[in-house]
Amino acid sequence: MFQKQRIFIFSGLFFCSIAFSQHSLFSLSDDYIVKKYSQRWELDSIDKHGTFRLMSYKPIYLAPARWSSKPNDQPYSENPDYSVDEAKPYNSIETKFQLSFKTKVIQGLFNNEGDIWLGYTQKAHWQVFNVKLSRVFRELNYEPELIFMYPVSFSFLGGKFRTIGLALNHQSNGKDLPTSRSWNRIIFNLGYENGNWLVSFHPWIRLKDDEDENPSITKYIGNGELNAAYTYNRHQFYAIVTHPFNHLKCGSMQLNYVFPLKGHLRGHVQFFDGYGETMIDYNHHQTTVGIGISFSDW
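The line above is the sequence of Phosphatidylcholine 1-acylhydrolase; the predicted structure tokens follow.
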């Protein structure tokens, strides 16, 4: 049922968008003109601004109220050492926020065109309304990356492929037994743009982990991610889809709608369905809806 819903919603909301402000950390254009890949990753010479300049990376947002259809009150793993014995009374409503930054550390590799970046993303799920559990942070995910980006220009279907690259990625929740979760990946990047559309495909290879805390994580979360984004006037829509290549019933979909409120303040509605909204939820299926404000999109 949920699989059919995801396909229906994704097809119906084919406007998947991004307006990524790159000239400074939180700068936003007055008309929310979509930022091209060259501006996002400083691909062309006119857009290069040197090294060690802190910029937004993935979306930055705050959702004071995020509702879950099925809170993960007793996380488990296929590795029995990482399964929780007793359930906790988590609320179905919590606060969610994400911070994400990047900075270029090396410019001008391989024919003076490739760059190396450091990226960092942190996602938090806070049981701020849960007095019984002393308003604990249910889950914090940390994601540092070392990213190589190289510009390309291949025409395709009226648009162009603009980037190829790869990243060394670590993601974990920083917890001890039995709720510790982590994995390491090599993530590939292929970026395409066409008018106000930005699309990127990120297949990955999971690196071997001798003490595997989440053995079936690729089965549930997937082997790659597709980001599709579209900007229309002052409204932005973007989708993030993950999927395992050999398990049709798993994966996830996140749909986002960002709209103007006043000045640079923008509202944000987020819908998620599937597995792996956080590391602790990698094998837990839920549907969530969050409402808040957005500071920076893709």
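Note on the example: The chain has three helices and 13 strands. Residues 2-12 form the longest helix (11 residues).
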